[in-house]
Here is the input.
Amino acid sequence: MQTLAVDIASTFIDDAAALVTGLGRALLRFAMAPIDRIANACDIAGVLTERRATFRMWRANRARARRDGRRFSLLGRLSPFRHLTHLT
Here is the structure.
């Protein structure tokens, strides 16, 4: 019973942290929009677009490597100790 309560509490905390992170990113994007417009207007050589494309490729490769390295296990998803996997 205690494991269920801890699991529910950790899920709530994880969701609250994700909500705060998302709101922070949205606020930052809103605040940085004028600066991004000025930077894009001043980018004559296309350096910013090339940099963004390189970053997107790097992030996609990193995500793919993470997905390939993980094994999908239904038991692992339902385990009450799934948050402790980084200890092994």
Summary: The helical segments are 2-42, 47-69, 74-78. The radius of gyration is 20 Å. The chain has a mean pLDDT of 81.
